[in-house]
Design a protein that fits this description.
Layout (H helix, E strand, L loop, with lengths): L2 E6 L5 H15 L3 E6 L5 H4 L4 E5 L13 H8 L7 E8 L5 H12 L3 E2 L4 E4 L4 H14 L1
Parallel strand pairs: 1-2, 1-3, 3-4, 4-5, 4-6
Helix pairs in contact: 1-5
């Protein structure tokens, strides 16, 4: 049984709903899943999991949330080499540049991305929820 962490930050609940769907997909594929807020995860935790899903909405000028999520992600980046990961989040403006930038960071860190990331415009619709479940299944 694989161990999957779903690590996220959410202000409005949109990214939290996506995290729940990722966890559901991973559990449905037989994984042991731990769901954590960004403040509960650090580089020392990376080796505890076979795969990790990171979720964060776009903030400001299409960047990761800067007070909690960005510092956590920056601290784990150097531990992601060879690690199977996925990224997801919601946005309300822009064209998804934050996701492209985030994907590039993951690739530069040597992570093994299972897809290009899952985005939802505001609240995730049925399609986005299914994409999140697929992400979870791929991580499991």
């Amino acid at each position: 049984m694989s161990k999957v962490a779903v690590v996220f930050w959410s202000a409005t609940g949109n990214t939290a709903a996506m995290a729940d769907a990722v966890a559901e997909g991973a559990r449905g594929n037989g994984a042991e899943v731990t769901v954590l807020g960004a403040s509960g995860f650090s580089g020392v935790n990376v080796s505890e999991y076979d795969a990790i899903a990171f979720g964060c909405p776009a903030m400001g000028a299409e960047v990761l949330e800067e007070e909690e999520f960005e510092p956590m992600f920056a601290s784990v980046e150097s531990f992601l080499g060879g690690k199977k990961i996925g990224i997801f989040g919601s946005y309300g403006w822009g064209d998804g540049q934050w996701m492209r930038d985030w994907k590039d960071r993951c690739v530069s860190a040597g992570a093994s991305l299972v897809n290009d990331g899952v985005m939802a415009n505001y609240a995730p619709d049925e399609t986005a929820i299914e994409e999140c479940k697929d992400l979870g299944r791929a991580l499991a």
